[in-house]
Amino acid sequence: LGYNQVVNIDMDGPTLEKMKQRWQQKHTKDDKRLEFCRLDLVQDEIPYPAGHFDVVIDKSTLDCTLCSDEATAALLCQVYRSLNAEHGVYIVISFHHVNLLLPLLRDCPEADWAVSHQVMRREVEDVIRNGTTNSRTPQEQDTKESTLTPRNDDSAWASGSFQPTEGYRTTVNVMICQRKGGDSGIVLDRNEVRHHVYTTNDIWFQSTNPMLTRTRHNDLKSAFGDETLDIQTCYTVMFTEAEREHLTFEHFMEDFDAFLETRPNVKRDCMSFGTAVSFL
Question: How far apart are alpha carbons 276 and 234 in whole angstroms?
């Protein structure tokens, strides 16, 4: 694309080091077009002046931060500050539903940018043991088809629990936020953005995409009956196989421990149907 400076930002040092090594294997040490910056967006400020970047590409970083209102607010505020006010573009590549992403970005307080949506077919990269990679699309025979086309996003939750559709497995949502111009010194209020993130998430998960659907409620009632199940079994019956790929047992227990903080009389090693419903 002709850019002479690309800055890779991550909070994981080993990941950045691997990226740096892959770059150096293919380029001379004097090639400084790629820079690598380790920082925590919540604690640290991106070490470049306001309006420095023409493009910020977010490859599922927003997906990772959405479990934390504070982290998401920090990400959005830092991205907005970093973008060139006249033409800067924030590109978000996400597995989340467009009906969550669109209001989150479009209605972000004081953010003066135009937001559009596209769907892109995924390209899967196989990492081979010798360090080489092999990239492929989920449907390699369709190589002549456009990889970026508008499309209605079918929900992976349509069945009442998380069951990824073919579209979910083979495509990602791409949100394009382009600044409209104005003062590059404008800084978004992190408290206002945090409240916006909380409200948007709350509306989505309570009203549009609740964890406890009627389908799941009935399935749990059938699985538990009048019994109390051990916690490992609870984890298995409460979440689908696809959900457990994203929510490990360890993370489930972290959430359950937080749930128990206000419920001292509830046991940690088992659940009843009523406890499972309250937890969800």
Answer: 8
Which residues, 6 or more positions from 208, have their beta carbon under 8 angstroms from its beta carbon? 99, 100
- Burial class, 259, CB count within 10 angstroms (exposed 0-12 / middle 13-18 / buried 19+): middle
Q: How many residues does the chain have?
A: 280
The Cα–Cα gap between 6 and 36 comes to: 9
How far is 215 from 213, CA to CA, in rounded Å?
5
Tens of pLDDT, residues 159-190: 656 666 777 778 899 999 999 987 767 889 99
H/E stretch holding 229 reads: strand 229-230
pLDDT digits (tens, 9 = 90+) for 125-161: 655 555 555 555 544 333 333 344 444 445 665 665 6
Q: Tell me the C-alpha distance between 259 and 236, whole Å.
A: 18
How far apart, in whole angstroms, are the C-alpha atoms of residue 14 and residue 127?
17
Exposure of 211 in the CB half-sphere (CA atoms within 13 A): 10
Write out pLDDT tens, residues 106-117.
999 999 999 999
Cα(14)–Cα(277) distance, integer angstroms? 40
Question: What is the rounded end-to-end Cα distance, in angstroms, of the chain?
Answer: 46
